[in-house]
Amino acid sequence: MDKILVRNLKIFAYHGVNPEEKEDGQNFVLDIDAYVDISVPCLTDDVEDTVSYAKIIKETVKIFTCQKDDLLERAAQRVANGLFESFDKIQKLRIVLKKPEAPIKADFGYVAVEIFRERDDI
Q1: What are the phi and psi torsion angles at 105 (to 5°)?
Q2: How far is Cα 48 from Cα 110, in angstroms, rounded to an integer?
Q3: How many CA atoms lie within 13 A of 95 on its CB side?
Q4: 45: left (phi over 0), alpha (psi -120 to 50) or beta
Q5: CB distance 110 to 97 below 8 Å
Q6: Catalytic hit among 22, 55, 58, 99
Q7: Could you write out the DSSP letters of every residue in the chain?
């Protein structure tokens, strides 16, 4: 199946189990694979026949910043649910939610969760 990809979407938000994470906030990075049949827009060249990546980004930022979650798992699931609700052409989603500034005393690039959801799962 075809995909629309968003890579390294940086969003400042207030997720985490530690109080300071909910008070001070931190940067998060999302990768999104939206599985969409793009055969029609390939022929029509009309943005109305596809799912606009700009709209995916705008909706993801809105969903991700509208509340504070303890867990990355919960935040990623809320993004998936919201994107399915907003875009009926999306059939499947893969979301990788990275937390590069997690308050862990170690040298690491990021911690992350990855979820894969199908429309029928919601």
Answers
A1: -85, 80
A2: 36
A3: 28
A4: left
A5: no
A6: 99
A7: --EEEEEEEEEEE--SSSHHHHHH-EEEEEEEEEE---HHHHHH--GGGS--HHHHHHHHHHHHHSS--S-HHHHHHHHHHHHHHH-TT--EEEEEEEETT-S-SS--S-EEEEEEEEGGG-
**pTM, rounded to two decimals:** 0.95
Is 99 among the residues known to form the active site? yes
pLDDT, one tens digit per residue, over 11-41 is 999 999 999 999 999 999 999 999 999 999 9
Two structure tokens written together for 83: 């994107």
Lookup result for tokens 């690491």: 108
103: left (phi over 0), alpha (psi -120 to 50) or beta: beta
